[in-house]
Every structure is written in structure tokens, then in C-alpha cells.
Amino acid sequence: MNRNLTWFGITALTFGLAFMYLPILVLVIYSFNDSEMVTLWSHPSLRWYQALFNNGTYWGPAWTTLRIALVSSVLATILGIMISLVVTRMRKFRGRSLFIGMTIAPLVLPEVITGLALLLLFIAMGVERGFLTVIIAHTTFSMCFVSVIVTARMAEFDIATEEAARDLGCGPVMAFFHATLPAILPAVISAFLLAFALSLDNLVVTTFTTGPGITTLPMRVFSEIRTGVKPEINALSTLLIVLVTAVAVTSSLMTKRAAKRQQQLLAATA
């Protein structure tokens, strides 16, 4: 019986991974195809990567996307840490459940609703849509993910460490930076990189909140594939996959290294 369950689990896992990653693998393979037809294999070539780097229409949106992702990730990380501090330190206050529910609402709401709500808010406030509104939208969308990750780590943090720092003369802010932040740093780094990756490929919320002259890379790619997939898009998508993978691997390595360093420090002080 256990063997049957094991084989069933392996089969389900295999089909699930194939369903998720096989299309990505095909895209990467065809990005090295020399043919102008994206579905017809000719022979291996770097032709479309060269064409991509010579095509300047993608670099402006790419630079805009990176700036938005960087700024919104920093803001989302700061706000997410503040939310986690409120949730974990102020355990009893009126409206706590409502506050937590409103914080994690973007996790369960469709992106269309989030984007439309932000669009109506900006119109009602008379805010001109552009670079700033996209940053606000991405920050709003990403900070809930940051708060969930950091809150999970803060729930395991021993408050006595921070209290000891305050007994030694640190104020509340310095105690947080000297005692609490180093302990939760792996979670903070992971949350920042996740927010960066979410902002990097966001399309729906960006479409609702952007304005004239502000075009991100996902918007540019989406506008072009509506008339047909170009070979350059395969090459561009492959580069984005490499970038996101590098961010994920870096986040994992930094988190493990920081956790290992913390364990060694605790073992040395024990």
C-alpha cells in the first residue's frame, strides 16, 4: 500500500513538474533556434540574442522595470517589517484581526481587482498616473508578501534578546537594529528578493496604474505577442528566466548562510 502511494506521489509530482517547467524548457531551447519561425527548428544559433542586444526598443522599458522593482521592493520591505512588528509586538489592540485581514488581502484578491481599485483611487484623488503611481501600486501589492515572511520569523524571535540590548543602554530603535534585525535578516533578505521578483514581472497591476510614457518590459512584451511571438522575445524571456533564477538562488544561499552563522553564534554563546 505504501509502495502504491509512493509511486502515485512520484507520478503526480513528475506530471506536475513537467506541466510547469516543460514549456519553459521549450522556450529556452527555441531561443537558440536560427529559424525566423518560432515553431520550426533549424539549427542552434545565437542570432536572436544578437538581434535582441541590437534592438534598442527593449532597453528603455527594461531600465524602467528595474527602477520600479528596486524602489518598490525597498519600500515594501520597510512597510512589511513595520507591519510584522505591529502584529507580533502589539498582540492585543482593537481591530487587530481587521488589520491583519487588510494586510494580507492582496494575497487572495485577483490582481485585476487590486489594479482596478488602485486606478479608481488615483482617479478620485486626481493623481496623474505615471512612474510614482506604479511604484505605489507595486509596493501595495508586494508588502503583504513581505509582512507574511517577516512575521513568520518574528514569531520565533526571542524578545528577551532585544530586552537585554535595552538593558545595556540601547533605545528602542537601536535595540531593534542591533538585536532584532540581525536575527531576522535572512527573512528580510528573502522577502526583499521576492518583492523584487514580483515587481519585475508584474503586468496586470502595472497596466491599470501606469500612464503615458511609462512602459515596463512585461507590458512591452505583452503588446508585441498580441501580433505574434517574435524570436527575440524567446531570447528576452530566457534572460528574464536566468535573472529570476539567479535572484531565487541568491536568496536561498544568503538565507542559509545567515541562518548557519546565527546557529554558530548561538552555539558559541551557549
What does this 3D model show about the protein?
This protein has 11 helices and no strands. With 270 residues, the protein is an all-alpha fold. The chain has one domain (57-269): Orthogonal Bundle (MetI-like fold), CATH 1.10.3720. The longest helix has 39 residues, at 231-269. The termini are far apart. The model has no long low-confidence stretch (mean pLDDT 82).
The number of E-state strands comes to 0
Mind describing the biggest β-sheet?
Answer: none
Q: How does the overall form come out from the CA principal axes?
A: globular
Distance between the termini: 46 Å
- DSSP helix count? 11
Q: Helix share of residues?
A: over 70%
Integer-rounded radius of gyration = 23 Å
Sequence of secondary-structure elements: HHHHHHHHHHH
Kindly report the name of the CATH homologous superfamily.
MetI-like
Within the CATH hierarchy, at the fold level, what is the topology?
MetI-like fold
The top level CATH class name: Mainly Alpha
SS-derived structural category: mainly alpha
Do you know the CATH architecture? Answer: Orthogonal Bundle
Low-confidence stretches: none
In terms of DSSP E residues, the strand content is under 5%
Arithmetic mean of pLDDT: 82
